[in-house]
Amino acid sequence: MAKRNTTTKQLILDSLKNSKSAVSQEILQKELGEAVDRATIYRVLNSFCEDGIVHKILGDDGKYYFAVCVNCSEKKHKHNHFHFRCLSCGKIECLPNEMEVKLPEGYQSVNFNGFISGYCANCSNSSLFKQQ
């Protein structure tokens, strides 16, 4: 059965696509304001994950963040890349290099959650770091 594309789903998807980094449900809620309630955002984000539209990232702060998938489908979610969180500006981004992890024979990977925190190029080039 085909899933309906509602105005609410489109608002959430547009917000994710326009974001320059992965965003949490809280960030989406602030951006969308009264237009969409918290439970609906949660439900739509999980639906997008199942459909291969977005992937979920567990941050080192214990929160989940969501980023738009590139070349994924409902049948094949492939996100063997690290994610980076800037400790200064809070931006979370997908790093471009895919990682290959060799598992023992008979093992099958379902999820990869590589996470690095530090300072992004913009923040590490700020005057704060240049003074040190």
From TrEMBL:
Gene3D superfamilies: Winged helix-like DNA-binding domain superfamily/Winged helix DNA-binding domain (1.10.10.10). Pfam families: FUR (PF01475). InterPro entries: FUR (IPR002481), WH-like_DNA-bd_sf (IPR036388), WH_DNA-bd_sf (IPR036390). PANTHER family: HYDROGEN PEROXIDE SENSITIVE REPRESSOR (PTHR33202:SF22), ZINC UPTAKE REGULATION PROTEIN (PTHR33202). This is Transcriptional repressor.
